[in-house]
Amino acid sequence: MKRTFLALGSTVVFSTLTVGCGPEPIPPHTTFLIGATATANEPAVDMHDDNLKVVRDAVGRGTADVLGFVGSATDQPVVRKDVSVYYDESTKELETDQGRLDTGYQDHMAPVREKMAASASTQSQLDLLALLGDMAHTTGPATMLVYSSGLQTTGLLDLRGWGSDLNVDATVEGLPQNKLPDLTGKHVIFIGLGQVAGPQQQLPPEMYSAVQDLWIKVCRKAHGDCEPLVQRSSGGPPLSKVQVPVIPVPSHPTVTVFGDPAAGQTVRILLPNGVFFHKESADFLPGADQALRSMTQYFRSDATTVARSATAVGHTAKSGPHDGAIDLSKKRACRVVDALAAEGVDRSLFKVDGVGFDRPLSPDLDSAGHLIPEAAEKNRTVEVLVTRIRSNR
What is the pLDDT of residue 262? Predict the structure, then answer.
């Protein structure tokens, strides 16, 4: 049985060639908008079948067209393709044979895949918010497949200053509605949120989840029907050669030893908040206890020195309320000392303090009063200093 469109005046009727059957409903038509930020900090666009299943399903049900966008420098698509599979192009009969349908779909999608897989941004910022706006206003109801890490570096959602302190709900609440794209009637599927490449450091788990949560909530505030496709990219290294700012992320704990080991020494341990603590909390992230367990060696006697005293001081970047920063930083310092004491470290060695952003380890405001992202991330830490003196043994 073959299906065909019959034009009656300005109305298109979907019919069959089987005698005695009434007209069938008009098959659905779906418009797909495929966009990619495609910066030098992201994997190449990975257009494999798993994340294109919605396109394949739509072609199997009716007709579909695809528009592809790269970056946000222009709202003009870089590719435009009708990917419907017809038995007869002249009469617009839709193919029903599964084998020919599959072959036709793959043939029609090949130039789309090729163009998008080779996409490389020419912009010096990652601006996912602008890309969403460029895509959305080109058509009415549509399905949007958006390939992006989500690590915005400009505009309303510049994530560089927030780093591991990103408060998703407060950030979304503070976004002016009239500055968001109108995603009404759009089904938005985000692919690759939080996935990075090139010079951008990998995000720790808490930050990775926060970036996904952020864009789903931004999308919904913009009246979109939104979902993330949680799937690791295998698209390969970035194709763009245009440098884009990186988002500072917390590193692993660092240990510095200085002084004369024979006469005594000081051990400085920096425990990044974004690696050890849940956001806005003194609760440990998974694995924090194990990491601290490896630090207990610096509080025990060895052949030449013993621990005499220690301090644990919590720090934050210069953002948010002052009193809240003081309180949170002290709670985190106390949590570190509690965990070390649970591993057998003498609690009486410690003095504990929380200074918020009053005593930055690195100045994190520039001359204009703007947060310096890299310095801000260094200041999000609990600093532990252990003073060791020569043993009398």
Answer: 57
Report helix angle 205-221 to 128-136, nearest 10.
30
Predicted pLDDT at 359: 95
pLDDT, residue 390, reads: 83
Per DSSP, 277 falls in state B
CA distance 68 to 115: 8
- Residue 43's pLDDT is what? 94
Crossing angle, helix 98-117 and helix 53-61, to 10 degrees?
140
Alpha carbons within 13 angstroms on the beta-carbon side of residue 335 total 21
Tokens 């994997």 belong to residue = 43
Helix or strand run (H / E) with residue 169: helix 168-173
Q: Could you read off the pLDDT of 156-209 as tens digits, one per residue?
A: 999 998 989 999 999 999 999 999 999 999 999 999 999 999 999 999 999 999
Which residue positions in the chain have pLDDT lower than 50? Answer: 1, 5-19
> Residue 42 carries which DSSP code?
S
Structure token pair of residue 125: 């910022």
Structural fold of domain 254-390: 60s Ribosomal Protein L30; Chain: A; (3.30.1330)
Structure tokens belonging to residue 153: 């570096």
User: Which structure tokens are listed for 132?
Assistant: 């969403």
The string of DSSP letters for 188-237 reads: EEEESTT---TTSPPPPHHHHHHHHHHHHHHHHHTT-EEEEE-----S-S
Query: φ and ψ at 26, to 5 degrees?
Result: -65, 130
- Output phi, psi for 312, to 5 deg: -125, 120
- Hey, how many other C-beta atoms are within 10 angstroms of the C-beta on 151? 28
Instruction: Spell out a b/e string for 220-234, using b for 16 or more CB atoms within 10 Å of the CB, else e.
Output: eebebebebbeeebe
The bridge status of strand 3-8 relative to strand 11-16 is antiparallel
CA distances from 33 to 41, 68, 112, 354 (A): 23, 6, 11, 49
The residue behind tokens 């399903």 is: 57
Task: Please state, in angstroms and rounded to a whole number, the distance separating the CA atoms of residues 68 and 65.
Answer: 10
CA–CA distance, 23 with 225 (Å, rounded to integer): 32
